Amino acid sequence: MRRLRLALVVLLAAAIVPARAADPPADGGPWVVRAKFEDERSLALLMRRAAPWRVDVAAREVLIEVANGMEWRMMEREGFVVTLDAPLTRAFRNPPAKAAGQIAGIPGYACYRTVEETYAAAEALVAAHPGIVEWIDIGDSWRKTQNLPNG
Q1: What is the domain partition of the chain in residue ranges?
Q2: % of the chain beyond a pLDDT of 70
Q3: How far is CA 95 from CA 32, 89, 98, in A?
Q4: Residue 145 to residues 119, 138, 140, 151: CA-CA distances in angstroms?
Q5: d(Cα 5, Cα 47) in Å, to the nearest integer?
Q6: Do strands 31-36 and 54-56 pair parallel, antiparallel, or not at all (unpaired)?
Q7: What are phi and psi of 64, to 5 degrees?
Q8: What's the pLDDT band for 3 if we cut at 50, 70, 90?
Q9: With the CA atoms of 19, 21, 23 and 24 taken in that order, what torsion angle do they form, in degrees rounded to the nearest 10?
Q10: Which of 50, 84, 125, 151 is a good FRET partner for 77, with 20 to 30 A between their CA atoms?
């Protein structure tokens, strides 16, 4: 009977003491993580700070980029259970290289032009068809006029 009581006490203590959160990896980030959230309020808190890659409301989990250990700990303090998604972190840190024979486009995505290639194509259209195409600068964005960072 005494052993049964001791086993019950140990089980109850384990249930009451929260599991220790995983430390962020030692490499300093950035990482792709899965973060469990409790309710819509906590999800809204996270979404005000960063844009998740994916939100699974049924599983109460978000997939999100975390820049460093400070952000990781901040998410934990806000109530999120944070775990590293190692395969997505590796893919995020090692973007695709240009495909064999690819001479233009975004590495790994040859069907998309780079910004520079897009501008060059637009300038070529203006040069080739000056009677029907013109380049018009309509001014800076509001963000740029306020000296705000992109994003």
Answers
A1: 21-93, 101-151
A2: 83
A3: 14, 10, 10
A4: 22, 13, 6, 14
A5: 46
A6: unpaired
A7: -150, 155
A8: low
A9: 150
A10: 151
Query: 52, 27, 20, 19: which is closest to 37 by C-alpha?
Result: 52
Give the list of residues 6+ apart from residue 73 with CB closer than 8 angstroms, or none.
24
Q: How many CB atoms lie within 10 A of CB 82?
A: 21
Quote the tokens at residue 148: 């705000």
pTM for the model stands at 0.56
**pLDDT tens digits, one per residue of 49-106:** 788 889 999 999 999 999 999 999 988 888 889 999 999 999 889 877 777 777 788 7
Length of the chain, in residues: 151
- Return the structure tokens found at 23: 């430390």
